[in-house]
């Protein structure tokens, strides 16, 4: 693979400190035209704007973002609050959000809350100090008094699932039910009738919605999971391991388990492996999120996909609408995000059942966890 060729830079010792006047001179335009071009004012003549951007590239000029903010009254900076940087879902979300933001002339400021109120407060105050134009809140459990800091300054916000009622607040409405319904029906079509569910922390609305969707979809096809098969986790690997241990300690085991996120499912896979149980022969597993790692665990994980690209794009567009079109009436307050099942190798027929010539037959006794 050939190395990427980069434009040679001037030696540091001889490099002149460029400013907007140098760009204007090089592009043969006024300083005001350069300023409006850099700040992406839409009324700038397109031909002049092309000359300005060409001059910026040829001079290797980096606009002063603080000066831009003073001129335009906007920082061109968006805040992104996430729950936990160690969960692969969030780095993938950050990457998608940053890509679309940079393409549209914005930078992002990331804050990882780790579900800690003091850390949330620090993240929020840092964003206020940097004068962010808007904030995408991709975390849960933020206290309303903290969010009032943004609201009192008329800073637009976008939330997952729901947010406080305000003209400057939008919600990304995830259709959890669609993907979970596909998962439940996939298991039912394979012959499973004993389904379990490991939720995330149930004080979070998204976790409540995922569990409710699972129970509703089971009821649609006449299934009612035992209470012992409904276990609360915490969306971490370790939480998935503890939850699976609890499921296996029950007097009866489900034949398939859906998990509220992929990290939980991967933790569950680890416990089953340690117990000498095979997935999917002894127990089928379905995750949720479809993180990149899900395709590379053993066995590759069947999971409900929630596109980080779609989530990031919807969050960005919601904020940009408020930032760049503040006077536009009736801005959308809800942005739909869909989900769908991705079938891999962690789901199969129930233990002791196989299909031959279209007929279901019992082939062996079910294997239980080693004590």
From TrEMBL:
Gene Ontology terms, MF aspect: DNA-binding transcription factor activity; transcription cis-regulatory region binding
Compositionally biased residues, Basic residues: 361-371
Segments for region (Disordered): 342-371
Name of the protein in question: LacI family transcriptional regulator
Domain HTH lacI-type: 20-72
InterPro entries: HTH_LacI (IPR000843), LacI/GalR-like_sensor (IPR046335), Lambda_DNA-bd_dom_sf (IPR010982), Peripla_BP_I (IPR028082)
Keyword match Transcription: yes
Highest taxon, organism lineage: Bacteria
PANTHER family referenced in this protein's UniProt entry, alphabetically: HTH-TYPE TRANSCRIPTIONAL REGULATOR GALS, LACI-RELATED TRANSCRIPTIONAL REPRESSOR
Residues of the signal peptide: none
Gene3D superfamilies, per the entry: 3.40.50.2300, lambda repressor-like DNA-binding domains (1.10.260.40)
SUPFAM superfamilies: lambda repressor-like DNA-binding domains (SSF47413), Periplasmic binding protein-like I (SSF53822)
Keywords from the named record: DNA-binding, Transcription, Transcription regulation
Feature: compositional bias, Polar residues: 342-360
């Amino acid at each position: 693979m050939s190395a990427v060729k980069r434009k040679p830079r001037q030696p540091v010792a001889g490099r002149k400190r460029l400013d907007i006047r140098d760009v204007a001179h090089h592009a043969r335009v006024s300083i005001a035209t350069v300023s409006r071009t850099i700040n992406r004012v839409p009324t700038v003549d397109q031909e002049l704007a092309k000359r300005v951007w060409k001059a910026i590239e040829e001079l290797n000029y980096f606009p002063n973002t603080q000066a831009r903010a003073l001129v335009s009254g906007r920082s061109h900076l968006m805040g992104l609050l996430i729950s936990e940087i160690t969960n692969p879902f969030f780095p993938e979300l950050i990457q998608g959000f940053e890509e679309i933001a940079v393409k549209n002339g914005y930078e992002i400021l990331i804050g990882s809350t780790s579900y800690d109120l003091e850390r949330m407060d620090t993240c929020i105050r840092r964003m206020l100090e940097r004068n962010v134009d808007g904030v995408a809140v991709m975390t849960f459990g933020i206290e309303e008094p903290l969010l009032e800091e943004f609201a009192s300054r008329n800073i637009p916000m976008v939330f997952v699932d729901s947010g406080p009622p305000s003209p400057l607040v939008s919600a990304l409405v995830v259709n959890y039910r669609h993907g979970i319904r596909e998962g439940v029906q996939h298991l039912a079509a394979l012959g499973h009738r004993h389904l379990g569910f490991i939720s995330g922390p149930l004080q979070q609305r998204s976790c409540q919605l995922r569990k409710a969707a699972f129970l509703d979809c089971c009821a649609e096809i006449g299934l009612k999971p035992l209470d012992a098969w409904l276990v609360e986790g915490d969306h971490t690997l370790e939480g998935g391991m503890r939850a699976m241990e609890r499921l296996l300690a029950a007097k009866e085991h489900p034949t398939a388990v859906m998990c509220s996120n992929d990290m939980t499912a991967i933790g569950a896979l680890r416990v089953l492996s340690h117990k000498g149980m095979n997935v999917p022969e002894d127990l089928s597993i379905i995750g949720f999120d479809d993180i990149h790692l899900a395709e590379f665990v053993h066995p590759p994980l069947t999971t409900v996909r929630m596109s980080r690209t779609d989530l990031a794009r919807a969050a960005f567009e919601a904020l940009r609408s408020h930032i760049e079109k503040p006077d536009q009436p009736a801005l959308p307050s809800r942005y739909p995000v869909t989900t769908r099942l991705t079938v891999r190798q962690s789901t199969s027929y129930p233990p002791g059942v196989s299909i031959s010539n279209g007929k279901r037959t019992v082939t062996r006794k079910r294997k239980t966890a080693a004590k």
